[in-house]
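Dear support,

I submitted the protein below through the web form. The confirmation email said the job was done, but the results page showed an empty box. After a refresh the structure appeared. I'm attaching both so you can tell me whether what I see now is the final result or a partial one.
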Amino acid sequence: MILVFIVACSRRSGPDVQFVAGRVLLDGQLLAKADVGFNPASDSAVAAGGQTDAKGVFNLTSARAGSRGRGAIVGAYVVTIRKYRNRVEDLDPSPDPQKDPEGAAKWQSEAASLNRLPPESLIPAPYGNAATSPLRAEVKKGRNTFTFELSKDFTPAK
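What the results page shows now:
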C-alpha cells in the first residue's frame, strides 16, 4: 500500500510537455537575457516561456493552473522575443551605505527615477508581440531544438 502511494505521489502533474530548447541571435550575435515566449496558435496548447542565458540559449517551461513542466505541449506556436534595456545597470555601482549614506541615497533615487521611465526595447518591438512576430515554431513529440535569428532592421510587412 505504501509503495503505491509513493509511486502515485512521484508522478508529475500538469500538462504533457516535450523538451524545448534553443538559441537566439540578433544580427548573428548571441542574445543574452532575452525573454522567449511560445504563444499557442490554437486553444489546445498552453503558453511556454524561458529566458536566454549568456550564450543566448533558452529552455522552455509551461504552466497551467500552477503546475509546471519543462518544455511545451505538442502544437504550433507564435514565438515572441523581448529584451529591454536595464537602465540601472548603466549606473556606477551603488556606494556602500555604511561608508557613504548620502551617496547611497542619491544612487537609490537615481535608480528609482530610471525605473519609472518607459521600457526601451533593444530589439525591434514587432518580435515581442504575438500579432506582429514573424517567428513560428512547431513542437513535436520528443526533443525539440530551435534557432531564432533576429535582425535589428526588421519591420513587419503591411
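Response: this is the final, complete result; the empty box was a page-load delay. The two ends are 64 Å apart (CA to CA).
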